[in-house]
Design brief:
The complex is a heterodimer of chains A (about 120) and B (about 110).
Chain A: E1 3-7, E2 10-12, E3 18-25, E4 34-39, E5 45-51, E6 60-62, E7 70-75, E8 80-85, E9 94-100, E10 111-112, E11 116-120
Parallel strand pairs in A: 2-11
Antiparallel strand pairs in A: 1-3, 3-8, 4-5, 4-9, 5-6, 7-8, 9-10, 9-11
Chain B: E1 4-7, E2 10-13, E3 19-25, E4 33-38, E5 45-49, E6 53-54, E7 62-67, E8 70-75, E9 85-90, E10 98-99, E11 103-107
Parallel strand pairs in B: 2-11
Antiparallel strand pairs in B: 1-3, 3-8, 4-5, 4-9, 5-6, 7-8, 9-10, 9-11
Classes of the chains: A mainly beta (about 120), B mainly beta (about 110).
Chain lengths: ~120, ~110
């Protein structure tokens, strides 16, 4: 089955760190760019960042709101995507989705996980 | 940052009727626009990319149109499973992909 499954969310204090994982299956993970998108409770969607594939040297990009605090990485041998989140703020509270970028449209997302909730609170 | 504005915020439609959702960009995004459907507790689902191309497996009752700053998602005959929140997203201004705030389509 083609799917993405996120894990690693939870409650963390402001200033703390958390590492999210996304396990991919059913498709050639290594070929695709992969992104993280988040959704604060009751709010809309916000793009977080991207990792490209090996052909593009695994380069990464980040939204201004997380740049310098979040790091995206991947392990193609494990079909896994990661999001290391440091210096967390209350405004980082959200459901975090990993999303696949299709070959046909590198700006859209054609496969999403069910998300993992990150709550930043004291 | 390109701001995406969706209207209306809520659309009340009867099953079988046509629904027309709008998305406006604060500056031109060419045809670099996607639409997503999200149901409560679920991940978003890609409907349309390139402003008018249906994603794999999306029924023909969903259609997208527009370019530049004005875009429309039309659902020709609403089915019960279509009641959801719909988001537009621009991907013209890399690396600042931005989404609209969403339009909720509810049963009238």
């Amino acid at each position: 089955e083609v799917q993405l499954v996120e894990s690693g969310g939870g409650l963390v204090q402001p200033g703390g760190s958390l590492r999210l994982s996304c396990a991919a299956s059913g498709f050639t993970f290594s070929d695709h760019y992969m992104d993280w998108v988040r959704q604060a409770p009751g709010k809309g969607l916000e793009w977080v960042g991207r990792t490209r594939n090996k052909a593009k040297s695994y380069t990464t990009e980040y939204a201004a709101s997380v740049k310098g605090r979040f790091t995206i990485s991947r392990d193609d041998s494990k079909n896994s995507l990661y999001l290391q989140m440091n210096s967390l703020k209350t405004e980082d509270t959200a459901v975090y989705y990993c999303a696949r970028v299709p070959y046909s449209s590198i700006g859209s997302f054609d496969l999403w996980g069910r998300g993992t909730l990150v709550t930043v609170s004291s | 940052e390109i701001v995406m504005t969706q209207s209306p915020a809520t659309l009340s439609v009867s099953p079988g009727e046509r629904a027309t959702l709008s998305c406006r960009a604060s500056q031109s995004v060419s045809s670099n626009l996607a639409w997503y459907q999200q149901k409560p507790g679920q991940a978003p689902r890609l409907l349309i990319y390139g402003a008018s191309t249906r994603a794999t497996g999306i029924p023909a009752r969903f259609s997208g149109s527009g370019s530049g700053t004005e875009f429309t998602l039309t659902i020709s005959s609403l089915q019960s499973e279509d009641f959801a929140v719909y988001y537009c997203q621009q991907y013209n201004n890399w690396p600042l992909w931005t989404f609209g705030q969403g339009t909720k389509v509810e049963i009238k």
